[in-house]
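Human: Note token order:
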Amino acid sequence: MLRSNLSTRPFYNERAVGALLVVFAIVVAAMTLFNVSRLVGLSARHSELRSRIETADRRAGELRAQAARARASVDAVTLDRVTRATREANLLIDRRTFSWTDLFNRLEATLPPDARVTAIDPSVEEGRFIVTLGVLARSVDQVDAFIEALEKNGGFADVLVREERTDDEGQIVASLEGVYLPGHEAASAELRGKVRAR
């Protein structure tokens, strides 16, 4: 037997189509609600951030104005006096931390035989100890050896010969200048051992 549908309107499952359309409408409505809520939240956040930026800009302007007033109210003479007093205090502190014993130990440990230190003049320049040494030696080689030993083991840097001459007895009289590094560990156990051995 042959079956066929001869109606003018074919049969459709209208309930399934209706259910799918309802589900689709619910999904679209949910997504729309989500997007609207996100838009509202982002707008509120944008307004809050804009308010905070304006507050920060106002505060920065106030601070710049205060800084300008503070700079204008500083008395140059007083500032100069305070700066000089600070330098003086730092110089006194630096002199107090200068150890003559440590310097003498280093010089004794590095001084070649038959050479002598005749003068020591420490000073502080730009926060560094500059030491000028008068040296009496039998030869230029002894002076050079002394400079090398000071830079290698004696806690000195940039030692230069400022003056060098020969006296009436044929000895070398030299004036050396270098940066002294107190607390430099190069003149540690080995140098202290040499000092004790002498």
